[in-house]
Amino acid sequence: MKTPAWKRYLGPAAVGLGLFLLLMISQNGFAEEDPAEKWRIICDALFVPGALLASFGLLLFASKGGVFDMLRFGMQKALSVVLPKKRREALPRTFFDYKTEHEDRERKHMTSTLLVGLAFLLLAGAALVMYSQFELPG
């Protein structure tokens, strides 16, 4: 059964919203009286989850595309030294065998995390524009 498209966005959006609320609370953003300072806090609180989610989304996108296959195979080979002989024999012997064994697995791109992160960054940009409308002291 295929997951509806909108449900893939719920997890990253919940993480981003949780980080946003945590940062707003930690910087006392809900009680701030000065509008310029409030927009600065909102911008910071939106930028952090946006940057984290977008970076993680790019990492997921790259890993699902096969970028880290050689690293994964190398780590598997290095750790096979401590595995029992039965498990070690079940592992692919060459990188070609590894790629052939794993090429038929389904590779879903996790673009939802990347898109939610970019949405948070876009909102942070809008908050930055609002913050820049105020005359800064100094």
**Count the helices. How many?**
6
* Approximate shape: elongated
Characterize the main sheet. Answer: none
Helix content: 55-70%
Taken in chain order, the helices and strands follow as: HHHHHH
User: Averaged pLDDT, please?
Assistant: 86
Parts with pLDDT < 50 across at least 5 consecutive residues: none
CA radius of gyration is 22 Å
Strand % is under 5%
What structural class results from the helix and strand content? mainly alpha
Report how far apart the termini are. Answer: 59 Å
Q: How many E strands?
A: 0
Report on this structure.
- The structure is a single chain.
- With 138 residues, this protein is mainly α.
Which secondary structure elements does this structure contain, and how are they paired or packed?
Blueprint: H1 10-26, H2 35-64, H3 69-79, H4 85-90, H5 95-102, H6 111-132
Helix pairs in contact: 1-2, 1-6, 2-6
Looking at this protein, list some descriptive labels.
138 residues
Quick synopsis:
This protein is mainly α and 138 residues long. The protein is built from 6 helices and no strands. The radius of gyration is 22 Å and the shape is elongated.
